[in-house]
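From: lab user (bench 3)
To: helpdesk
Subject: output format question, protein + zinc ion

Hello, I'm new to running complex predictions and I'm not sure whether the block I got back is the full result or only part of it. Here's what I submitted:
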Amino acid sequence: MTDLLLTGVRAWGFGPAPTDIAVSAGRIAAIGADLPRDGAEVVDGIGCLALPGLVDAHAHIDKTLWGTPWHPHQAGPTLIDKIDNERRVLNTLGLSAEVQSARLLRHMVARGTTHVRTHVDIGPDVGLSHFHGIQAMREAHREWIDVEVVAFPQTGVMIRPGTLDLLEQAVREGAEVVGGLDPVGVDRDPKGQLDGIFAIADRHGCGVDIHLHDRGDLGAVTIDMIVERTRALGLKGKVAISHAFCLGMLDRPRLDGLLDDLVELDIAIMTHAPSGPTPFPPIRLLHDRGVRLFSGSDGVRDTWGPLNTGDMLERAFLLAYRSGFRHDPDIEIALRMATYGGAQVMGAAGYGLAVGAAADLVLVEAETAAEAVAFHPVRRLVLKRGRVAARDGRATMPAAA
Ligand SMILES: [Zn+2]
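Helpdesk reply: Thanks, we reran it on our side. This is the complete output you should expect:
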């Protein structure tokens, strides 16, 4: 029996002709013309494009200032300045990771996001408090959004004794991925940090996702060391590198060698197309070489910067914009990073716009995927497992208790 029937939509990947999408028991039951109404609730989707749920696979929802008064940016220019400033501001404001993350998630759902991988701060200063807040929040929102947690050492690993034990404790308690942070730039001890976090992944079978802002050769050598450990421990397909600015700075022979390694070991690269003059990976080249690519909002309205909005269609626009994409197939690479790419990295079961997949769907007024990226219009309808989570840009799911 059909529960919901979307009529007259264009479905991404199914050609330009309007089609119907039938949803039953939380799944896509059929995609085709003139499907039987079968007593179902009918949504007129004429003029709309159907996309799979958007995937924000690099976020920091535990420390957003979303829903609080506007906070003018105060941090200095370096990474360490930003970390120190964040600690100061969060200590002063005394916000709850559980409350703040719930506020931001609701907004993300309204923008069509159905899956989030979030890096959650863990370290000797905050212990596991942010992690426990996120665990409670994700349990409360389980029906409406899939949240994957990375245990993230925001203040460093080897320079903060006790951090490795806390990361491992978080993995024991349910974090799916262990994170890292500039093993050279922050820790000055790449062997120590990488051996430590890869040992956690080896012991627990979890994924690895490392923030790597270090530029040029420092970043490239760090990738070499990540590659060595991924190969030695048989972690093919379980490792990601976030930002990897250095990939946008290397000479071609050095870059080619690294890309060969990334493809061989299926190490995924996340970029959110950073602002300003910051270098970032050449998306089109990496895509053509077969590197797995994904994207995310990174920090949304937090002490790192005020401009991110948590909208993954807008993020795809920014990826395309900064990459100089104009042709539809190139723009669709950016959209795939914000959908299928992130879903694959998260191991999201049953994801996609296909019969049998979970009915995690977004309707937008657009003719094609490239137009949806170019204009990132209001999300007309957002479905999570077949249930309406948002309409016309507003979340309609119940507020968490
Ligand atoms: Zn990040």
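A quick orientation on your result: The mean pLDDT is 96. Let us know if anything else is unclear.
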